[in-house]
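Standup notes, protein team

Yesterday: finished cleaning the Costertonia aggregata set.
Today: 5-oxoprolinase subunit PxpB structure.
Blockers: none.

Input for 5-oxoprolinase subunit PxpB:
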Amino acid sequence: MNLPSITIKPFGIHAILMEWPNEVSESILDNILLFEKYLKHKCLESKDWETVPAYNSLLLTNRHLVIQHDVFGNKLQDWYADSKEIKPSKRYLWRLPVSYDAEFGIDMKEVSEKLGKTPEEIIELHTSHVYTLYGIGFLPGFMYLGGLPKALELPRKPSPRLKVRQGAVGLAGKQTGIYPQESPGGWNIIGNCSVPMFDVTKEQPCFVSVGDKIQFYQISRAEYDLHKIEAEVGIYQPEKIEMDA
């Protein structure tokens, strides 16, 4: 297996950044995740290390260690060259419910006009595609999902809102995503997901992982309200399908 070339540079005294070719590519993301697994199992024994994969980069941080970037960077290059045979981790397809009710889809009319499609066509396109989770950030649990149909691509709003509702499902550029909590935001909102995406009380606060797949499906407002109640009492479980490695 030919490995893509990487560059390594300092990211403060406690961190180092590895960068792959600057493109949105599932093969590059797969390579990053494989190397992250190799580092965790073979190289970075201390639990003080944290790794953050996203798109075409892998950030390594250690708050208790001042990193000698030249020395450690050479180690990373050597480890990367030796990591070819690592087996991939399990990946999952998560099916997440979305209500596209008018109360939630506050930008649906504007999106419909800009794209020249009916709301029903937009919903059909949005729910018929499977998205790849390329990164988690901006907010804890905010998923950056690639694979948006070209017919749904449109820019962020020129002026972000001061408040976007928790669970809001939006479109921006070539991506779609869910706001895990109320926050400012500039994405075009077309619905709301009834599944809590981040729960600080759980051992794994965000149940999805970079490299997982997401598919949305439409639910009614009544189903949305039921899911919210089930989530509040801790009995709602999103649909999870193990994918072939």
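Follow-up from PR in the comments: The first strand starts at residue 7 and ends at 10.
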